[in-house]
């Protein structure tokens, strides 16, 4: 909100259709950052993170937002039993983390306002007796389902808050959130594939989203886990976020300044058919970061790979990527 005001937008509140009041990825990430999980072995217990990420994984593939209590227990119990810290209880009951998420505004239990807060048997008894249907609030579900950028920001907020040095890859894989398309928006309905759809499908490019994706990439470049503080080399969340940032910056056009043509088509995910390329290969110590990556049309990508002019082109592309990155971060891209 503050950023929009600074950019000169008049900010008014949208109608609140969501009892939690959460509407933007920013607000959701801030709420996640404020969660106060109990600790086990001096680190945050994972239960609330397991519940949230499971629900985000369900939203991503379009499962119903609300689920009955018996089905919720059946789905979450094995996940909670398997993915936990040393010292975190083995029972795998989802009622305690769901009660905590409900009071934080991150879970909806329609028709219920009297959910107990206290730890202990009151929570268990209440859930057993009420067997409430529940799920993510509407705004959280909609963003997790449709917006790749919002989805990875939620995942990053949860893993930063809860997982610390815990290896999150096994759990994220189990709930369908650890692949290189995780930051990609939901595909639009298939049908039209003419050029108008190509440009129309590209969201209003947002410097704000670009900056947030770059922050996420930089944070996850440093992310480590385990006793040996192993760096995560091939983190699909970082890779996906970096690629999404470059596509956002491209506005669906080849970023080679000698070309600038619109993408020739969309791919099956409804994304502009541009190749997001590392200007300097990772094997040659290039960085997996939008500053050193560029979106190219298939022709220019081919020239960069095999053309006789590739060395000159690479010099131009390296300069262009850095300039465009700086322009987007400072909001001075006014094309
Ligand atoms: Zn091109």
Compressed to H and E, one letter per element, the order equals: HHEEHHHHHHHHHEEHEEHH
Shape: elongated
**What class, by secondary structure content?**
mainly alpha
Helical content stands at 40-55%
Cα distance spanning the termini: 24 Å
- Mind describing the biggest β-sheet? 2 strands, antiparallel
**Which percent range describes the beta-strand content?**
under 5%
Q: In terms of per-residue confidence, which ranges show pLDDT below 50 for 5 or more consecutive residues? A: 1-17, 192-205
Question: Which molecules are bound in this entry?
Answer: zinc ion
How many helices?
Answer: 14
Number of domains: 2
Mean pLDDT: 86
Strand order of the largest sheet: 1-2
Rg over CA atoms, rounded to whole Å, is 22 Å
Count the E strands. 6
